[in-house]
Amino acid sequence: MKKLIVITSPRFFRGEEVILSHLFDEGMQCLHLRKPDSDANELRKLLDRLPDACYPKIVLHDCFALAMEYGLGGVHLNRRNSRTPDGFAGTISRSCHSIEELEQFRKLDYLFLSPIFQSISKEGYGNGFETETLRLASEAGIINDKVIALGGIDLTTLPLLRPFRFGGAAVLGALWGNHPSADQEHSILTQYKKLQAWN
Predict the structure, then answer these.
(1) I need a surface site. Which of 98, 120, 154, 183 has the fewest CB within 10 A?
(2) Domain ranges, residue 60
(3) pLDDT tens digit sequence for 83-131
(4) Count of structural domains, the chain
(5) Residue 152 above 80 pLDDT?
């Protein structure tokens, strides 16, 4: 596995900026800032509390103008935000939910394919792919080092990705759980180190 991407908890929580800063200190190379129910001002408050040195490692899912304003590393296209901001020079990634979508958007910098396993953070968001489908897509080069596995990724499922040619994995629920808080900082950092060590 070449890359471990962290996706933020969908909701803000007290002390989040401290934990994120410490995750960057632990070597986190890519953070996807995804807060689907937030507005630009709420995102700006979180960004303002993070060290400027972290900005090139942050990929934004919403309010793309902030990516230009803060010099963030990338934007992530999805159904809500499907257009790249004019003049943006960072990485462009996208969420895909079928092998056909991977082929359609293969020119982007990298792609999420989900859900690979039963989602930890989205109840009822189950497996989307048969093992044979993933194997054939890997053999055909459709799943390659630009494709990131997402959905149900944790310490038990990470090894199951080895037969396929994914370029990495993205974690959300496996790191944050359902209700992260400032007092869970130690356990979150410990969990990150375990996920990173497997990688």
Answers:
(1) 183
(2) 3-198
(3) 888 889 999 999 999 999 999 999 999 999 999 987 655 555 556 789 9
(4) 1
(5) yes
CB-based contact 33:58 (threshold 8 Å)? yes
Under 8 Å between Cβ of 127 and 139? no
User: Measured between alpha carbons, how far is 185 from 15 in angstroms, rounded to an integer?
Assistant: 9
Q: Output the 3-class SS for the chain.
A: CCEEEEECCCCCCCCHHHHHHHHHHCCCCCEEECCCCCCHHHHHHHHHCCCHHHHHHEEECCCCHHHHHHCCCEEEECCCCCCCCCCCCCEEEEEECCHHHHHHCCCCCEEEECCCCCCCCCCCCCCCCCHHHHHHHHHCCCCCCCEEECCCCCCCCHHHHCCCCCCEEEECHHHHCCCCCHHHHHHHHHHHHHHHHHC
